[in-house]
Amino acid sequence: MTEIDDKLLQQFFEPARQQQIEDNGFTERVLSCLPDKSIQLSHYWTAFCLAVGLILFVVYRGWEPLIVSLVSLARMVSQNIHPIPFFMVLGMLGCWLIVDLTQRMWRLQV
User: Fold this and answer.
1) Whole-prediction pTM value?
2) pLDDT by residue (tens digit) across 80-92?
3) What sign has the CA pseudo-torsion 83, 84, 85, 90?
């Protein structure tokens, strides 16, 4: 039933789709002058949510459970980590950092 309805609608609107009304670029000029409300509204909504989140974080002292969780995580990691793979990873990261910094400095000189 919906396929038949879709075909009937397409047939009905086909002449309107082919018709063009000349406005000498009026529509484009008007649309380019209008402010984009959705982007502006999005910025306001983001700022409002950020402010509410920050206020709630301060009011309910959100840093306390955050610090407790980070200290607990650090203790757990420090107790269960084997030093050899840890230092291997640190060495690899250090080498990668040195190579990356060298490449960036080389690009700045050229």
Assistant:
1) 0.39
2) 777 778 788 899 9
3) positive
Measure Cα distances from 109 to 54, 77, 95, 105, 106 in Å.
43, 41, 21, 6, 5
Q: Looking up tokens 């529509």, which residue turns up?
A: 27
Tell me what pLDDT residue 100 has. Answer: 94
Q: Which amino acid is at 70?
A: L
Q: Stretch 103-108: mean pLDDT, rounded?
A: 88
Tokens of 27: 């529509």
> What gap in Å lies between CA 42 and CA 55, rounded to an integer?
20
SS3 label, residue 18: helix
Q: pLDDT at residue 110 above 70?
A: no
Helix/strand/coil (H/E/C) assignment for every residue in 36-103:
CHHHHHHHHHHHHHHHHHHHHHHHCCCHHHHHHHHHHHHHHHHHHCCHHHHHHHHHHHHHHHHHHHHH
